[in-house]
Automatic annotation (TrEMBL), chain A:
It comes from the Bacteria. This is Uncharacterized protein. It comes from Hoeflea poritis.
TrEMBL record, chain B:
This is Tautomerase cis-CaaD-like domain-containing protein.
Length: 149, 138
């Protein structure tokens, strides 16, 4: 299962990222199941994200869950992730979005993100993503890449 | 939610990015009635786009509630036209794709998002919950 997380440059420290990832993995195992969760952090450059018409300080967490996951379980999972996230970062609730998407829809979203790229663009993007994520994993223990390449 | 991600090869200027985000917010909220605080726009750069495309706009938007296929079509059409204008691109250079997401798959403001059309009551409840927790506006 996959998790893509969007954060703002300079907003969340590496130590916080590690604590957040540990928390998400723990909650995922408790609420959803023992599936391996691949977490990729995407950092947006300053002044490249806007929320509510203003330059954003928001974080967006999306995770893939099994298709048809019961509503009560899904909601309890997301709410606990959101609360635990804010305990680590101190962000305002309006600055945190947590999504738990059915696997099939998540797949559709990721495919759609790639469809707008050329064939070479897809290969290049996935190559860069993989390389950066792996280097980051070796250096920091977490996979961090950037939206703005 | 909605989350609009915009991919391009080269970065747009800061002012154009800001203008595009305002247009996306105008179109989305104008057609759907969603509050502006729901609208997130992310600019991603350095991507080789498909042939003929300069800017690819993908929107993950809530589905259900008071929304229907006609509304999504109008949202797509207006988004396409207005974003192209704001980006100073020919409309043929802009690609818009919308994907519907169940509202209860997302938590924002510390609460599960409401179905489209039920935002006013949700915002009232959210503000009351935040006030009870001693949390002011962001």
């Amino acid at each position: 299962m996959r998790s893509l997380i969007a954060i703002q440059e300079g907003q969340i420290s590496l130590e916080q990222i590690k604590a957040l990832e540990k928390m998400l993995r723990k909650l995922y195992a408790e609420h959803i199941g023992p599936e391996k969760l691949t977490v990729i952090w995407n950092v947006a450059a300053r002044q490249h994200t806007i929320t509510d018409r203003k330059w954003s300080r928001s974080s967006t967490v999306t995770m893939e869950v099994p298709d048809g996951l019961e509503t009560q379980r899904r909601e309890a999972f997301m709410l606990e992730c959101e609360k635990s996230w804010r305990e680590v970062t101190g962000q305002h609730p309006d600055q945190v979005s947590v999504g738990a998407f059915d696997q099939s829809r998540y797949d559709e979203i990721l495919k759609s993100n790639l469809t707008r790229l050329s064939t070479l663009g897809r290969v290049s993007y996935l190559g860069k993503l993989f390389t950066r994520a792996m280097i980051s994993k070796m250096q920091h223990g977490v996979m961090i890449t950037r939206f703005n390449q | 939610m909605p989350l609009y991600t915009l991919a391009s090869k080269r970065p747009f200027s800061e002012q154009i990015r800001f203008d595009i985000a305002q247009v996306i917010t105008d179109v989305h909220c104008g057609l759907t009635g969603a509050p502006t605080e729901f609208v997130n726009v992310v600019f991603m750069t350095g991507f080789r786009m498909r042939r003929g495309t300069t800017l690819g706009v993908n929107g993950n938007v809530r589905m259900g509630g008071d929304r229907n296929a006609d509304l999504y079509q109008r949202l797509n059409d207006q988004m396409h036209r207005r974003v192209a204008e704001a980006a100073q691109l020919d409309i043929s250079r802009v690609l818009v794709t919308l994907i519907g997401i169940e509202p209860h798959w997302v938590v924002e403001g510390g609460m599960v998002l409401p179905p489209p059309g039920e935002e006013a009551g949700w915002l009232e409840r959210k503000n009351a919950v935040h006030a009870a927790m001693g949390i002011g506006p962001a």
